[in-house]
Design goal:
The chain has about 300 residues and is mainly β. It has 1 helix and 24 strands.
Length: about 300
């Protein structure tokens, strides 16, 4: 383990309250990943204003819903509706204008994650596309000890996730380890890998000294335990070939994500990510002049 990072509370869009973990002063990016946000509340005031129309260019967004719904529309006429357990992988490519409007479930709960993955220079201006995947199409493996792994993207334990054709060749797993169990999970030495703990407690080990990680469950203050830390935790791993996690007394749930670094220069301002300042300036000029969206 090279670092344990706690997210920071912030807001985005029209006032959606969220926790930002990657894309902060402490961890501005983790090549190829640019940003990781967790949004979660049972109070609609925290999320109902959503993300009104805004541009994207030069990267991909991965939205994974745990609870609630997420409606999206874009300038190319695409429209979708994410529900509990589903995922959307949007390739912004050469440019798109879209909006994302979260909604709670029948209890008002809304909980999910959005990860940004950079595109290489050769694909910055590719045609935009969506991959919307319902929960039923995401494979889940249940091991003999009760460990559950949902495979959003990549290969794991002989199964392949439904998301295809992503440039950074990522692996995106939702892992749940039962209370008191110790689990070994393989990772690729050539990738940047992290675990983001969103429920339970536990300790992680790779090639370094084990580190204890605790988190709070999503929900109102009365559901929290005083001995748990307030912010979620992201664990960065070094170049080992496996991760060992020891679940605490309440078990542990985390995202285990890895991707192939692009090792390219990044020029990034707001929702546009290019390779050079000249390209970034050109993109914002096109946005102002009304020719940001390219004919397909």
């Amino acid at each position: 383990i090279t670092q344990v990072i706690e997210g920071i509370k912030t807001s985005d869009g029209a006032g959606v309250n969220l926790t930002r973990i990657i894309g902060t002063p402490e961890l501005n990016m983790l090549d190829p990943f640019l940003l990781l946000d967790e949004f979660g509340s049972d109070n609609p005031d925290d999320y109902i204003a959503g993300f009104p129309p805004h541009p994207h260019r030069g990267f991909e967004t991965i939205t994974y819903m745990m609870n609630g719904k997420f409606r999206h529309r874009d300038s190319a006429g695409h429209e979708g509706y994410l529900r509990d357990g589903s995922v959307q992988w949007m390739t912004a490519g050469g440019g798109i204008l879209h909006q994302e409007m979260p909604q709670g479930d029948e209890l008002g709960r809304m909980h999910g994650f959005q990860l940004w993955a950079n595109l290489p220079a050769t694909l910055k201006m590719t045609a935009p596309r969506y991959q919307d995947v319902p929960s039923r199409d995401i494979p889940e493996i249940i091991d003999d000890d009760g460990t559950r792994v949902r495979i959003v993207c990549g290969d794991f334990w002989g199964k392949t996730g439904p998301i295809e054709g992503v440039s950074s060749d990522p692996r995106y797993l939702d892992v749940r380890v039962p209370p008191g169990h110790r689990k070994r999970l393989p990772v690729n030495r050539e990738r940047h890998a992290f675990a983001y703990v969103f429920a339970g407690t536990g300790s992680f080990r790779d090639a370094s000294t084990p580190r204890t990680v605790q988190t709070e469950p999503a929900g109102p203050p009365e559901n929290l335990h005083a001995h748990l830390i307030g912010n979620r935790s992201l664990v960065l791993f070094d170049a080992g070939d496996e991760v060992v996690v020891q679940a605490g007394e309440n078990g542990i749930s985390f995202l285990l994500v890895s991707g192939k670094p692009l090792e390219e220069p990044v020029a990034w301002l707001g929702p546009i990510v290019m390779n050079t300042q000249k390209e970034l300036t050109q993109a914002y000029r096109e946005l102002r002049n009304g020719n940001f969206i390219k004919p397909q």
